[in-house]
Amino acid sequence: MRFETSxxxxxxKALGLSTSTVxxxxxxxxxxxxxxxxxxxxxxxxxxxxxxxxxRSLKERRSYSIxxxxxxxANNFFSQVINGIxxxxxxxxxxxxxxxxxxxYKQEKLNVEHLASxxxxxxxxxxxxxxxxxxxxxxxxxxxxxIVFFDRVPEDFETHKVIANNFKGSFDATEHLILSxxxxxxxxxxxxxxxxxxxxxxxxxAALLKYHIEFKPELVKYCQHGGMHSAExxxxxxxxxxxxxxxxxxxxxxxxxxxxMALKKTNPEVADKIAIAGFTNSNLVELFSPSLTSVKQPxxxxxxxxxxxxxxxIEAKRPVTEFETKVLxxxxxxxx
Amino acid sequence: MRFETSxxxxxxKALGLSTSTVxxxxxxxxxxxxxxxxxxxxxxxxxxxxxxxxxRSLKERRSYSIxxxxxxxANNFFSQVINGIxxxxxxxxxxxxxxxxxxxYKQEKLNVEHLASxxxxxxxxxxxxxxxxxxxxxxxxxxxxxIVFFDRVPEDFETHKVIANNFKGSFDATEHLILSxxxxxxxxxxxxxxxxxxxxxxxxxAALLKYHIEFKPELVKYCQHGGMHSAExxxxxxxxxxxxxxxxxxxxxxxxxxxxMALKKTNPEVADKIAIAGFTNSNLVELFSPSLTSVKQPxxxxxxxxxxxxxxxIEAKRPVTEFETKVLxxxxxxxx
DNA sequence: AACGTTTTTGGGAACGTTTGCACACTTTTT
DNA sequence: AAAAAGTGTGCAAACGTTCCCAAAAACGTT
Lengths: 336, 336
Prior knowledge:
Two copies of one chain form a homodimer.
Chain A: H1 8-15, H2 19-26, H3 34-46, H4 53-60, E1 65-70, H5 76-91, E2 95-100, H6 105-117, E3 122-125, H7 135-142, E4 147-150, E5 161-164, H8 166-179, E6 185-190, H9 195-210, E7 220-223, H10 230-240, E8 247-250, H11 253-266, H12 268-271, E9 275-279, E10 293-296, H13 299-315, E11 325-328, E12 331-333
Parallel strand pairs in A: 1-2, 1-3, 3-4, 4-5, 5-11, 6-7, 6-8, 8-9, 9-10
Antiparallel strand pairs in A: 10-12
Chain A binds a DNA duplex (30 and 30 nucleotides) through residues 7-9, 17-21, 23-24, 27, 31-33, 36, 51-52, 54-61.
């Protein structure tokens, strides 16, 4: 804001003190006498003094802001994560800057670099489904930018990570389909390079194995763009249907809704004959038709944990070398 | 970021120039010779110089950032607005800071004040459904903070505003219900103090009038918390059903989905007997059961227009005194 | 050759903080 | 009574920019 506001200097002048004394009084430092502190605090209150965060940032060489990259905020999973992030960040006096990659590598890189040049103190990121090359993140990290990954994490990057128990979530969902009598279960999933894709595929395979159902690679369809293009989804559905699946396990929020949409659009007659189980944090799932079984991730908590880890890195006095990967349990919400 | 990065000073020293010359060369000012410019630019490129936006902000007394307040990002209408805002803002080199009020006045005020103290250059805001008192905005505005309202706008506040054609949108939706044979049409709406509530009520009334249907106040139910509490919605539905409506016109995104949810939960037997038309920008509306007719707002465009107006205020050399209220048309998507 | 113009560059203050250091004054210790 | 220790405050530099003002260099004109 460009409008005038009182500064430490003003207070100092008004009270006949030096700026250093005022600054120290405001930050409640031990060197300052109680008397002076009271005086300063009272006057600051009176003139409604607000510290200028920009000046502070410049001096301290940090911005008290953290960057967030998600593919889309219009996705309940991510917006819940963001809520979790904010709940912790605001508490600790950080503010957050949100950017969307829209599942595009180019956009993701651009946004990260924009954020970095905006002097964020740390970065929370879920990779886009297109992303393969994370060297640009590595180099930022090497220069000292703390990074914590969540949800979609790279394998070969030593830092804190927070993920859902994707294996178990997928296993449970697939098992649920099997137990309700399905035998030809397709798997619709994200781009192959995402961590979640691999983990969820393993869970799916494990459930099949447990019930002695043969794993057929042709029943697995990958979507490079994570369901951002409806054409991609319709194509996948079109290829899947001839194999006559009686169930589909879908591995992400966007894909789950997109797949049902594609199914209804292209083959409405079979749409409610196929049982669907999918990852989604949509709070509208009860309204969907056909209804489905959903795997809900602890999104809010994921945001909180990731933020705590990030802030601990930011505020660490010495470089952090011990990293954790936190794994949070999912919840299976059965079709009603 | 705390890590070392080259500054203007470094460049100056390396090239044997003064900081002022380097600064001017980088900003391509006319005073500097082509030769020097080339030299500086090349070197800057080589050391990957990035201007420090914090220092720039401090000097120029502006932050190149704009604040956004919406009730919830997990709402397609708002997330689309945000996408519109970003599309313009990034173009003009502003970044955005998003805050959520969660329909709470207290939270809204807190967030605005937090943003203001973070030195935003301007504010884009859609009021929370609880908000009645906007004096805190007035005082910020008086101190020089440019503000543009969108969607939920106050009546008595002289600044730019961007809204949908709520009257027409409501009229169309209500007329659609009437034309499909409904005669007892309830209206479920937001808190009475919102601008959109009033405008949409008028559209509803006008449609009834046109078809000579008596307006019955008892068919109108207000939700103070905008559907944030499911109890509130269930209560409204409970009070409405005894009046045996054959159609419901619902005036906002959150309420529309919430109402269908409440209907299905408390009275599943009537849920698909009542025709529903409601404002919503959900992109999942095709999946809903019962299906509904929806009024879609031009959310993306609304964000764009609001941002353009805001930036024009921010960059105006002299105080703006002529304000516009832009009205954008809605789109009726009929139930299939 | 001396002067005025124009073009290009540099010095240094300022934006609002924080903080190392020095200083003055009290109080305690020997 | 002098030295040491403790307490409270102020000075000034620094963070990385921008920009006013002056100075230097280059050029043209008589």
